Amino acid sequence: MDTVEQINGYFYKGMWNLSPGELAFWILVDEAEKQLDGIDIFAFATIVGSFNLIHVPGKPNTATRGTSLLSLGLRRMISYRLDTRWRSPTWKTLINGQWARTSSLGGLIGRWLPWVGVAITLYDITLISHRTIWHYNLMVRPEDRI
Q: Looking at the Swiss-Prot or TrEMBL record, what is one Pfam family this protein matches (predicted)?
């Protein structure tokens, strides 16, 4: 039986007597399971890979300390230098309201790629939240709706 019934609570996917909060939680888990896939692993990897964890000797004191694994790897893979210094976001510069500049194409891609991961993650969170609220409101009594 895969429907919602009222006994002294709600029934959902084999779980009995769920409170409205518990029902919302299990619907959220179900919707997250449906939404999350391989592209989300990519998004997570780009975000985590963008943290400045690798020490770089000889960097000026005005620069952000260290570099990210993503930026370092892309700088090694793509060694092309641009004619001008292009603006790119980093975690620190966005907090300060500024842009970092680089003439390395690999470094530029390495700084923009995490924001693709952030956009994918925000899209997933929005979709999961919307679907969870919609399904929850379909299943509960009117006084329990969000």
A: DUF8209
